[in-house]
Write a structure and sequence with these properties.
- By secondary structure, this protein is an all-alpha fold.
- It has a single domain, classed as CDP-alcohol phosphotransferase transmembrane (TM) domain (Four Helix Bundle (Hemerythrin (Met), subunit A)), CATH 1.20.120.
- It contains six helices and no strands.
- This is CDP-diacylglycerol--glycerol-3-phosphate 3-phosphatidyltransferase.
- Pfam families: CDP-OH_P_transf.
- It is found in: Membrane.
- Belongs to the CDP-alcohol phosphatidyltransferase class-I family.
Length: about 200
Amino acid sequence: MLTSLPNLLTYARILMVPGLVGAFYLEGDAANWTALVLFVLAAITDYFDGYFARAWHQVSALGRMLDPIADKLLVSAALFMLVAKGTIGWDSVLAAIVILSREILVSGLREFLASVRVSVPVSQLAKWKTAIQMIAIGFLLAGPAGDKLVPYVTQTGTALLWIAALLTLYTGYDYLNAGLRHVIQEDESAAGKTGPASNG
C-alpha cells in the first residue's frame, strides 16, 4: 500500500511544501500566483487522497499517519511565509498563532488518544473551520497581486483568517475537553491498578 494512489497524492502534497516556500522568493506578482497555484493543487490532492482511499478501500496506516502531517506542513509553511512577507500584518499574527497552536495541540492529543485506542471524530464545525481557513490562506496568497484584479482580496483573506481563528478556539476547546476526559480516565485507571491492596 506504500504506492497506492491515495499515498502518492499525500507524498505529492508534502513535496509541494518546499515549492510553496520557494515561490515566495520569486519576483513580483509571480510569487503570489505561483504560491496560490501550488496551494490550490495541494488542497485538491488533500480532497482526492481521502476520497480515493475510501472509495477504493485503500486506507492504510501510513496514509493515516502522513495525511495530517502533510496538511499541517502545508498550512504552517503558508502562514509562516505570509507573516514573513508581511501579508499577514502584526495586527493579525495572533490569528495565525491561534491556528498553529491548535494544530500542535490536536496533534499531541490525537497521538495520545491513538495510544489508548480512542478516536475523537471530526465535527462538522471543525470541517467548516478547515474550509474557511484554507480559503483565507488562498486569498492571502493571492495578496497584493489579487488586489490588482479584485479589490479587497487581502482584506477579505485577513477577515476570514480571524473567523477561522475564532472557530479554531471553539473546536479546539471541544477536542481538548473530549481528550482530557480520556486522559483523566487513563490516569485514574493507572492509579487504581498501582494503588494499595485492600486489607479486607
